[in-house]
Amino acid sequence: MTPIKASLLLVDDHALFRDGLHELINHW
């Protein structure tokens, strides 16, 4: 796997995580 692809995956994971966090906060 190229470093660029790896970092893109990390960014994507982070975005998903952040969206999930926002969902949790909004449900409160």
Structure description:
It is a single chain. By secondary structure, this protein is mostly helical. It is 89% helix and 0% strand. The chain contains 1 helix and no strands. The chain has one helix at 3-27. The longest helix is centred in the middle third of the chain and has 25 residues, at 3-27. It starts with a helix and ends with a helix.
Supply database-style keywords.
single chain; 28 residues; mainly alpha
Order of helices and strands: H
Percentage of β-strand residues: under 5%
- How many runs of DSSP E, i.e. beta strands? 0
List the uncertain runs. none
Overall 3D geometry?
A: rod-shaped
Largest sheet: none
Radius of gyration: 12 Å
Q: State the end-to-end CA separation.
A: 39 Å
Question: Which range best describes the helical content: under 10%, 10-25%, 25-40%, 40-55%, 55-70% or over 70%?
Answer: over 70%
Whole-number average pLDDT? 86
By secondary-structure content and strand pairing, the structural class works out as mainly alpha
